[in-house]
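Researcher: Good morning. I'm working through a list of sequences from a screen, and I'd like to move beyond sequence-only analysis. For each chain I'm collecting a predicted structure so we can compare shapes side by side. This is the next one on the list. No need for commentary yet; just the structure.
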Amino acid sequence: AVVVEATRAEEGCLEYVMAADPLVAGKLNLFERWESDEHLADWQPHVFVLDHGGNSLTNCMGGAEGDAYHEKNRQDLDYLIGLAEEFGARVLLIAQPISRDGGRVGTHELYETAPNDHADGTVRFVSTWPVLSPDGEFLQEAPCNDTEPGCVDGTGLLRSPPPGGHLEPLGSWRYASVVAEALDALGWLPEGALSR
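Model: Good morning. Structure tokens for this chain:
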């Protein structure tokens, strides 16, 4: 609610709505309307959050493998960081959890080491492994408490059943919690943005 309120308070913002997609679990839809193109152009993002599964299912990565795959991801990351710098924004890079076959996503090492090249602290990294891939192992389900979404009788699905690997409600909740807590710990959220 704090992010919505802060954005609506921006000069020229007529409408800004974030809502859970009623048909796609874990998807968030964003709608915004501005008084003019000039008002929208004056708005600047404060943080870019980047999480990339690094698969070859998207058109931009189709056919890229090995060194070409890693080079394409490095170029894309450099571009995003440069764009953030133009806006005076910061970048939070997020590690994907371990895959079903135990493999690490190809962007993991790139994202984990990128902050080393930005000593000013504008580029940071957070791992979802502690809640989704503890000890570097794929987890289908995990113990949970009744206040967490998707928890039934003390257990909940983190990932969808085979052959998929998408996050289920409990996994999405834990993933989002890691990201929100990282943003809060970095001081990149407004005071009181998280309710505990």
